[in-house]
Amino acid sequence: MSTTATTPTTVISARGLSISLDDGSPNPPRMVYDLDLSVSAGECVGIVGESGSGKSLTGLAMLNLLPDGVVASGGELRFGDADLRALSPRELRRLRGKEVSMIFQDPSSALNPSRTVKNQIVDILRTHEKLTRAEAVARAVEALEDVGFANAAARMDAFPFQLSGGLKQRVSIAMALACHPRLVIADEPTTNLDVSVQAGILRLLRTRIENDGFACIFVSHDLGVIGAVADRVLVMYAGQIVESGPVHEVLANPQHEYTRGLISAAPTMSSSRANPLRAYTGQRPALSSTRPASEMVPVSGSAEHTVRRLTGGTAQ
Amino acid sequence: MSEVIAGVDLVKSYKLPRQRTPLTAVNDVSLSIDESEIVGLVGESGSGKSTVSRMLVGIEPATSGTVLFRGKPVSSKQEWRTLRDSVQYVFQDPYGSLAPHLTVRQTVGDSLDLRGIGTPQDRDRRVAKVLEDVGLRASDARSYPAVFSGGQRQRISLARALIMEPRLIICDEIASGLDVSVQAQILNLLLGLKERFEVSYLFVSHDLRVIKYLSDRVLVMRSGSIVESATVDDLFAHPQHEYTRELIAAVPDFASDTVQFAATALPPVSPSARKAGPS
Q1: Could you tell me the pLDDT band of residue A246, with boundaries at 50, 70 and 90?
Q2: SS3 A205
Q3: A133 in contact with B at a CB cutoff of 8 Å?
Q4: What count of CB pairs under 8 Å joins A to B?
């Protein structure tokens, strides 16, 4: 389970980080409030929440990859010893893909449709490491075999469209892990996959986290997936972490009302009509520059109408 | 209980370009759905579950086999029309299944308008009522789909289906891709509508947790065939087919008894003797 290191090293840490709209005003509307997050080597931290809770933005901020018009402000954001936000674009380019990498939800749009699997992995390897083409190809074969892509040497000339969704996701994981990153951010990487394919991918990620010892931030709206893959979980609601802790503790014994709401709304293998799911509805606080009231419990009630998407930009 | 719809020996095959042998997507599937019954249809992508449900309403003509509506085979155009009044279909994508340029009133009331049922005022009243039945407001009739969230759009699609007072609604992945609380609202809405209007559902999904919550009976499909059919309790307590057992084992579940998935049930995929990342 744990890595050989006796004291786990913190790979990424954020303290009091906010993510806000860059609208030029002195007090811009914030989408994520005072986030504290740190992930150690060999650890997987899950971020769970609903659409618009800020979980995807949080993941993107860890790569300094926020969309235009959205900025991380206040607090600090450190990757190893470096202040992530003080790095030049050139330094960031060197970091991304090598030290920090990302696995996206949709492998069909994350992979380049016009290049073969082999070339895409070779590109990454040769961008970041001094390798001859032959060495890079050998490493690409190894990277693919390590993600369960059987018979890689013969099949790596395939284009993405020739592969199934599960295989494509394995390829994008191979790309993410090819340069032995210290941090991997996975944003809903199994959401569109069949259950058995999903189980394979989760198992693969878990094994690689344990074997390779990288830190992982795993964003998902599915509590079951988070329970299967994460060591610790952060529950996000309306831009704040409302609860965090070891994943099995939080899921078995949730403390915050929102976490309880999320759990009682999620179907599980033990749910049945005799024990109806409880939908948790209500109005999310509007975006503002100040943190919402501390007991920020969603209003319960049936008025789903009142929940309107506030911005197009708050995560997906 | 009397049967609403049945498919007998349904086959769907597609001719492929430059190939002699056609591709068989659905192979000899028979199923039936009773009044007030919720049948779950589960399987992986490509197993043929959507094709089966589409053949039942004739959106996809069957290559061979028969659809029976209330025990009578459906063949003429008129018979298909009658079936489609009583069997409604709700699609997966809440963003793709509503015409963006039509108001909710137009979309929901379209079937009544086309058939000239009642006076225009009657039709407006029925639209208003059915919107309230699905948990929307009568005044939402004036709005366009763009102002609604995914969950609300699924309610609009359900209203469009309900207005014809159907006996069966086929729901193809209608709760996928929604947030859990919205998903729970939709699932509970379906259960409530069933009680009130005694409608049956064929609920197509790849999510076993949702299927287990909702269904009375479950059909498991794999590569074009139904491999197992049982009541929901039997299927999940005593799965007979190897494939069903595999599917159930693959479900990530945080309920207490399987919570150790991450810790124990994870055999290494590729035990590569690789050292940890770069120092």
Answers
A1: very high
A2: helix
A3: no
A4: 178
Q: Are B136 and A305 within 8 A, CB to CB?
A: yes
Query: What domains can you pick out in chain B, each with its CATH number?
Result: 3-95+169-262 (3.40.50.300)
Report the percentage of chain B scoring pLDDT > 70. 91
Residue whose tokens read 């039997």: B234
Under an 8 A CB cutoff, do B252 and A225 touch? yes
Cβ–Cβ below 8 Å for B184 and A267? yes
Reported as a single tens digit per residue, the pLDDT across B99-155 is: 999 999 999 999 999 999 999 999 999 999 999 999 999 999 999 999 998 889 999
Residue A45 domain boundaries: 10-99+183-188+213-306
Does residue A316 surpass a pLDDT of 70? no
Query: How far away is chain A from the Cα of B183, in angstroms, using its nearest Cα?
Result: 8
- Closest partner residue to B209 (CB to CB) among A182, A248, A269 is A269
Query: In terms of CA atoms, which chain B residue is nearest residue A280?
Result: B181
Nearest CB partner across the interface for B252, out of A202, A273, A279: A202
Centroid of chain to Cα B169: 8
Whether residue A129 is contained in a domain is answered as yes
pTM for the whole thing? Answer: 0.82
Count of the separate structural domains present in chain A: 2
Answer whether residue A280 is part of any domain. yes
Burial (CB count <10 Å: 0-12, 13-18, 19+), residue A164: middle
B225 phi, psi to nearest 5 deg: -130, 155
Q: Do A207 and B269 touch (CB under 8 A)?
A: yes
Q: Burial, A143: exposed, middle or buried (Cβ in 10 Å; 0-12, 13-18, 19+)?
A: buried
> What is the per-residue pLDDT across A167-184, written as a single tens digit (0 to 9) for each?
999 999 999 999 999 999
